[in-house]
Amino acid sequence: MNTNLPAWQPPENFIPLPSALPGITVFAPRPKEKPSGAPQIFKCPQCGASTKFDVASGGVACEHCGYTTATQAQTVGLQAQAMEFTLETLSKSALGWGVARRELHCNACGADMAIPEKALSATCPFCASNHVNLREAPADQLRPRFLIPFKIQPQATRGMSQKWLGQGWYHPDELGASAIVDRFTGIYLPFWTFSAKITSDWKAEVGYETQVRYYDDDDKTWKTRTEIDWRWENGRVKVDISNLLVCGSLHISEKLVKQLQPFNLNELVNYAPDFLAGWQAQTYDRTLPKAWEQGKAEMREQAKNACYQTIESAHIRNFNMTADFAEESWRYTLLPVYVAAYKFDNKVYQVMINGQTGAIAGQKPVAWWKIWLAIAAMLSPGICLGLVGLPLLMAGGIGLIPLAFSLVFFILGLVAALALYRKAVAAEAL
User: Fold this and answer.
1) Biggest alpha carbon distance in the chain?
2) I want to staple 389 with a disulfide (CB 3.0 to 4.6 A). Which of 22, 119, 370, 403 is the partner?
3) CA 259 to chain centre
């Protein structure tokens, strides 16, 4: 036996695999590696400084030497390709941001934001907390496929917020007199868009008003009264719902997000890392399955309203509906929002501006002494008339007339006071 023969070597690009038999080594071809999509780092080719996506020019610009380059992204609008709910579409989706970024984590509210590689930030834009730390941005999340670029210039946000803060008589006078919101942070917020075709079968008791004549023994006259004739009815309604937005962030008030809408999805463009240069972007913490559950609930409500609209009566009871979903699809997109948190009387309030349309939503403190004075003024006419009418009634005079007017004015004032109170509470609530 020739012991000088060279040791056997596996063919090129073959790797060992686990074997079920002891002492036996199994080799197989090395799997083809997928392109890693190495993150881009945005540097100015002229001076080497960091670059940023510039809203005015619509491209990446260097604030140091003035170099600009256009962003190569195609506007797709509502024709943006939707994904089906299959494991195949998820497995083919790219991961990570496609650009070198770190993650800012707020220890106070728990928000996570992907920030540029060399960005320095010490304050959370959602809660104004300074208890933040930096860590590596996760690379295992789905990469957005579409976004809407910022249209509102960053320098315009200060004036817009100051004007908005000055609106409303029941807020503190000093609120609009000084620019409390010093700085807005432009953030691409994660959104899921859902579309589906819904077939709704409903069944309910529907009441129809009928006029019935009857004889009143007390008055010895014929009168008419309204009665409800209840009947079981059913029907089928088909509803097509497209581009329902569900925010992928759990740290944003859904109430404020609804007030910022609508976004013009006709301006959706294909995602490119260039748009994130110098801007923050929040990672989603409401996953696709969780967002879809919320989206389905909102779609069912829309389908329910569509069923109600087909019923030719306002009297409905024992309503029941089944909804069958078909052709469900989704997109993961980024939408532009300016976010700021400001403090007033040791309380934190949040303001957001739609970075595409300029719509503003947020919290504003209320001068409650103004509210109580207004409520007192609304109730005083009814109370005063009651104080006048009651002695006259007890004295045997014509007190019934002012008492009747006092009751009417008191009820009207109470309704107006409750509406004002609810509006004031909503101004401070998230």
Assistant:
1) 136
2) 403
3) 8
pLDDT for the residue numbered 363: 86
Beta bridge partners of 361: 352
| 220-272 confidence digits (pLDDT tens) | 888 888 889 999 999 999 999 999 999 998 878 888 889 999 999 999 998 88
Domain range list for the chain? 52-200+235-360, 368-428
Of 130, 178, 125, nearest in space to 154 by CA: 125
Neighbours of 138 (CB within 10 A): 13
Cα separation of 5 and 208, whole Å?
100
Q: Which residue has the tokens 């957005």?
A: 144
Calpha distance 142→423 (Å, rounded): 40
> For the residues 103-128, what does the mean pLDDT come to?
62
Answer for the pair 66, 55: CB distance below 8 angstroms, yes or no: no
Distance CA 199, CA 193 (A): 20
pLDDT(203) > 90: yes
Beta bridge partners of 50: 43
> Tokens 């008589």 correspond to what residue?
169
List, for residues 39-77, the tens digit of each pLDDT value. Answer: 444 566 666 656 666 676 666 666 666 666 666 666 667
Helix residue ranges, H only, 395-429: 400-428
Contacts of 421 (CB under 8 A, 6+ apart): 371, 375
User: Would you say 113 and 69 are in contact if contact means Cβ atoms under 8 Å apart?
Assistant: no
Mean pLDDT calculated for residue range 297-313: 94
Element (H, E) at 375: helix 368-394
Is the pLDDT confidence value at 166 over 90?
no
How far is residue 220 from each of residues 211, 214, 217, measured CA to CA in Å? 19, 11, 5
For 139, the 3-state DSSP assignment is coil
Question: How many helices and strands in the chain, by DSSP H and E?
Answer: 7, 17
